[in-house]
Design goal:
The protein is of the alpha/beta class. The termini are far apart. 40% of the residues lie in helices and 28% in strands. It folds into two domains: 210 residues, Rossmann fold; 66 residues, Alpha-Beta Plaits.
Length: 357
C-alpha cells in the first residue's frame, strides 16, 4: 500500500494587487484587483510505506504548499491526493490519527505551560488511551532525553530543546507518516545530529514513513535515499540521491602530499593510459582529476604503490553544488540527455526525408 499517492496536484491562489500611490490606495478601498498565482503545477508522485523522502526546492518553489495540502490544511484546486488511504481535507478527523507534523517555525505546544501539560492535552486531542500514552511517553522521553524538560514552560526552552519536544508531541499517537517541514532550521550541529539519528532509528524500528522538506542538504544526505526536487511548482527530479550524484557529479579530485618533490613528467607517467588530469599546487603537492567512469582505486594503486606519500585527500562534488547547478539550468537533465532528446525529436523528420528521397 502507498503511504502517499499524488496525481496531477495543482494549487492556485488569488493574490490582491496593490496599486501605487495615494490614488491607487483609494481605488483599492473600493475596487480591488487580483491576480492568480499557481504555486503547485500538476505534480504527481508516489511514496511507499517506510520510505524517507526528501522534498526540496528553493524559496517559493511550492514545498510548503504541497505539505499543507498533504496534511489537509489547504484544499487543492485540482488533482488527486491520498495519504494513508484518506483524502486529507475530506476525512480530516480519521486522517489526522495516522500522521504527525512538525513545522520548524511553528509550535504545536502551548507556550506558557509545562511541556508535560501540552503532551497531556495532545493525548486528549488524539484520543490516546492512558496506558498507551504512558508507554509511548516513556519511550520518547528516554530516546530524546526530555526528562529535565517536562516541567518547564515551552517559552523557557532553547530552540534545540523545543524541537526535541515538538518531535515527541508529533509522535505521541504513533503515526505511520511523519511530515517534517524544516525540522533542523536554526539548530546547532550537535542537535541536528541527534535529531537525524533519532529519525533514522524511528524509520528503522517502526517503519515510519517520513517526508522531509529542508534547505539543509546535509539532512537529505544523512536521511534520504530518494529526492523529489521542485522548481517553480513543478517536479524537475524524482529519484535516488546516488543516481543524482552519478548523473550530475563532475568527477572526483584526489590530492596527494608527497614526501619529496615530484616532477610533472613523473605524475603523467604514473597514470599513463588513464583519462585523468594532473595539476601541481607546489613541488610536493598535486591534485588529479578523475572522471566518474574511472575507479579512484585504479589511480590510487598506481600512485601509492610507487611513490612515498604523507597524506591523501579525496574531494567529491557535493550534493549542494549539484543542486545549485540544477537550479541554475532549471532542469535535472544533463547536457547529454538533452542532446539525446533533441536527436530523438529529429529522427522522425530525418526518416521522412530519407523516404521522400
Amino acid at each position: 500500500m502507498l503511504a502517499i499517492d499524488v496525481k496531477q496536484l495543482r494549487k492556485q491562489f488569488n493574490v490582491q494587487k496593490n496599486r501605487e500611490g495615494l490614488k491607487g490606495a483609494m481605488l483599492d478601498l473600493f475596487k480591488r484587483e487580483h491576480t492568480q498565482v499557481t504555486a503547485v503545477k500538476d505534480i504527481s508522485f508516489e511514496i511507499p510505506q517506510g520510505e524517507i523522502c526528501g522534498y526540496i526546492g528553493e524559496n517559493g518553489a511550492g514545498k510548503s504548499t504541497t505539505i499543507k495540502m498533504l496534511t489537509g490544511i489547504l484544499v487543492p484546486t485540482s488533482g488527486h491526493i491520498q495519504v494513508n488511504g484518506f483524502v486529507p481535507h475530506k476525512d480530516r478527523e480519521r486522517f489526522v490519527q495516522g500522521i504527525g507534523v512538525v513545522f520548524g517555525q511553528r509550535s504545536q505546544l502551548w507556550w506558557d505551560i509545562g511541556v508535560i501539560e501540552s503532551f497531556r492535552l495532545l493525548r486528549k486531542v488524539y484520543r490516546v488511551g492512558e496506558a498507551d500514552f504512558k508507554q509511548r511517553l516513556d519511550e520518547l522521553v528516554e530516546t530524546l532525553a526530555l526528562g529535565e524538560l517536562l516541567n518547564r514552560p515551552v517559552r523557557k526552552l532553547s530552540l534545540g530543546q523545543r524541537m526535541r519536544c515538538e518531535l515527541a508531541a508529533a509522535l505521541l499517537h504513533r503515526p505511520s507518516i511523519l511530515f517534517l517541514d524544516e525540522p533542523t532550521i536554526g539548530l546547532d550541529v550537535v542537535v541536528k545530529t541527534e535529531i537525524r539519528e533519532f529519525l533514522k532509528r524511528l524509520n528503522r524500528e517502526h517503519g515510519t514513513t517520513i517526508l522531509l522538506t529542508t534547505h539543509d542538504l546535509q539532512d537529505i544526505e544523512a536521511l534520504c535515499s530518494r529526492v523529489i526536487m521542485l522548481d517553480d511548482g513543478r517536479i524537475i527530479y524524482d529519484g535516488g540521491l546516488e543516481e543524482l550524484k552519478a548523473r550530475w557529479g563532475k568527477g572526483r579530485e584526489v590530492q596527494f602530499q608527497f614526501n619529496d618533490p615530484i616532477p610533472n613528467e613523473r605524475l603523467e607517467a604514473l597514470t599513463g593510459g588513464l583519462d585523468v588530469r594532473w595539476t601541481k599546487e607546489n613541488e610536493q603537492t598535486a591534485k588529479v582529476w578523475i572522471p566518474l567512469e574511472i575507479n579512484v582505486s585504479d589511480v590510487l594503486s598506481r600512485v601509492v604503490g610507487t611513490t612515498d606519500i604523507s597524506d591523501i585527500k579525496i574531494f567529491e562534488t557535493s550534493t549542494e553544488e549539484i543542486v545549485r547547478e540544477i537550479y541554475r539550468t532549471g532542469s535535472a537533465e544533463t547536457d547529454q540527455q538533452r542532446a539525446d532528446a533533441n536527436l530523438d525529436e529529429r529522427e522522425p523528420t530525418a526518416r521522412a526525408e530519407a523516404v521522400r528521397s
